[in-house]
Amino acid sequence: MAFKNFQVVTDVDGVALVTWSTQGHSMNVLDEVSSNELEEVVKQTTADTTVKGVVITSGKATFSAGAEISRLDGMYKEYVRVLKEEGEVAANQRLFAQSRRLSLVFRSIETSGKPWVAAINGRALGSGFELTLCCHRRVAADNPTTQLGFPDIKLGLFPGAGGTQRVPRMVAPQQAMQILIKGDTIDLAHAHALRLIDAIVPARNLVKEAKDWIKGGGQGVARWDEKDFRLPVGPVYSHAGKMAFHAANAIYRCETYDNYPAKRAIMSCVYEGLQLPIETALRVESRYFANVLRAQVTRGMIRTLFLSMAELQPGRRRPQNVPPRKVKKLALIGAGFMGAGVGYVSARAGIEVVLITRHQESADKAKAHADSMFNDLIQKGGASENDRDETLSRIIPTTDYAAIMDCDLVIESVFEDRKAKAGVYAKAQPFLKKGAIFASNTSTLPISTLAESFTEQGIFIGIHFFSPVEKMRLVEVILGTNTGNLALATALDYVDQISKIPILVNDSRSFFANRCVRRFISEGIEMFLEGVPPAMAENCAKMAGMPVGPLSLVDEVGLDLRLKVMRATEADLGQNAVDPAQKQLMVELVVNQGRLGRKNRKGFYDYPEKGKGSKTLWRGLADLQPNHLDPDQIDAEELKQRFLVVQAVEAARTMDERVVTDPRDADVGSILGFGFPPFTGGVLSYIDLMGTANFIRLCHMLEAKYGPRFAPPKLLRQMADKHESFYKSL
Q1: How far is CA 362 from the centre of its chain?
Q2: What angle do CA 603, 607, 612 make, to 5 degrees?
């Protein structure tokens, strides 16, 4: 039988070589066709008496990227259809059967009676890694870039085709749960040390070594199917077993606050499964997998972090009438921490970079930042000295604006002051070549008003990076009123060059991300002024799913910068545009107390010198609170709601005002840009999953208690009246 994605060739010794090459994909994925064909390959090789064993390998550069996530999305949609047409029992049975299918295929490999060897070339992730684990031996080509693991958890899923049962039967439970719950990949050396990989061989010998093991008498029996099998550290109820699960549960609670059902399901699968025979344990795993697959958390995470992420490619809204543009040379004016980061990622992408500052010392320091970043990478094995030298050779630090003359793109990244920015624009414009584009990395000031300093406003656009640039994947591309198609196309092409994810935003003060972030910080400060203990506000924010508390975040941003933005907002919009109590607090902290935030180790927190302990909330904060509430009388759940709702309402306002026009931009931007809890699916998915009408009721309750910042915008009210959601039309 001829297969589309697999080639089966049996040699004279009776060893079948199964070469996997999924058509239409750059990497092998377990889509519907591959899953069907793999099942048939197992049946044929098992039934064929001339086949003594099987080696499975990849015809591509990597072994497998795992399951096709859109297939899982299709399983859920089928569940919804059957639920409506045939009822809950039928829908649950169908979903369970579908979720179990791959697990059964893998188990049939394991129990075929014939030895299977996985010959792994390159990465093996998710269900691709699970496929290797059901084989009786795993041989990997010696390749420093090979990674193994289960990133599924980052989409709200977990390895449901045997991963939660085979890994803890191979390594100690505490190590197994780290691999399963963290979702981080492991390299070959680590995998070999854990015995997840049996041998590492030269790439040229990969298939030969795999075949030789079979020819040398390799047996087709899994360890856990042998009568004398023992778990790595003994039974669950042994001393070592109990210690592992106590620690894992504590870490889980500390890191997730029970917001991620897939992580809880993993622990349950491991705990329950290790007390059962493998067949029953795999059935238990499938039940948990089906349950997680229909959870709202999973739906939101898959949609935003996989489907929407893939759809937000730079070309999605790129003007089609503009030919592709490649930025060969970039100028960065203002090379502080942010500018230095932009220079580093641009140079790494092969772009020649000019760093322009007022003083040569500052420009040299910005280049040194790139050197420092590379040294860290080299120590971790992520780059070579040659990579560093080539990248640094592309960075030119200078004070001379004439260096702009042959640049395709110029990005201004000076501090948030209109006069300072206007001064830069006046110096830069005479040197811009024809066809060059100018961008501002402003975080708050409207692009249209900044563009007024330009003779040709069509070449002016906003490109807003997030700190630290090296780690943050999101970039806001901001359209001013007069921004032209050439500027938009160039900006999107540049973002693609440096491997970032763009969201397209129309002009507004603070644009999209910072509007929501500011609401989060302001809500934390509002709680502080109400008399909520600072530690309680911080902890409730993290319990709600935010990566840090609002007081920690404003310290990172800088209290002095927050005060500058407040003053700039007053200058542009009048005194009523800023909350007077919050401004007074910032003046007290910055001007009177000299507390600027992390930068001078004094803000809402006190910061020790590097390597000398952890930050602690400043003892003097209580003296600045006009009230002091009894924490036992405060509703912690309501504090958590306030943090999320205030950001979601602001995001809905940006949709109402057409600042953001696509909910995918808002959801992806909120998770990648400011850490809105991934388990919600993003700021607008948070509303959708709650239901618009339910969300509005919650808004009105909070509005009555805490003020108009919680008032739902007109768009939400209209959606509720029509029983609509943000994603209904997509």
Answers
A1: 32
A2: 175
76 CB-side CA count, 13 A: 18
Q: How big is the CA angle at 348 (ends 342 and 354), to the nearest 5 degrees?
A: 55
Residue partners of 361: CB distance under 8 A and separation at least 6: none
Q: Residue 120 and residue 305: Cα distance in Å, rounded?
A: 27
Whole-angstrom distance between the N-terminal and C-terminal Cα of the chain?
A: 40
Q: CA torsion 178→183→187→189, rounded to 10°? A: 10
How many whole angstroms separate alpha carbon 563 and alpha carbon 389?
A: 40
Confidence band of 314 (pLDDT split at 50, 70, 90): low
| DSSP string for 504-552 | EEE--TTTTHHHHHHHHHHHHHHHHHHT--HHHHHHHHHHTT-SS-HHH
* Coil, helix or strand at residue 115: coil
Residue in the structure block whose two tokens are 């907002």: 569
Residues, the chain: 730
Q: Are 444 and 514 within 8 A, CB to CB?
A: yes
pTM metric for this prediction? 0.89
| Predicted pLDDT of residue 87 | 94
Q: Return d(Cα 629, Cα 539) in angstroms, integer.
A: 16
Pairing of strands 199-201, 137-141: parallel
Q: What tokens does 165 get? A: 């049962």
Distances from the Cα of 461 to the Cα of 312, 324, 455, 497, 683, angstroms:
19, 17, 14, 17, 25
Strands 29-30 and 501-506: unpaired
What is the 3-state composition of the chain as percent helix, strand, coil, each rounded to the nearest 5?
55, 10, 30
By C-alpha distance, which of 491, 451, 526, 511 is closest to 708?
526
45-85, pLDDT tens digit by residue?
Answer: 999 999 999 999 999 999 999 988 888 888 888 999 999 99
Task: Report residue 518 as tokens.
Answer: 């500011």
For the chain, percent of residues with pLDDT exceeding 90? 79
Question: What is the C-alpha to C-alpha distance for residues 179 and 148, in angstroms, rounded to an integer?
Answer: 10
pLDDT digits 0-9 by tens, 475-513: 999 999 999 999 999 999 999 999 999 999 999 999 999
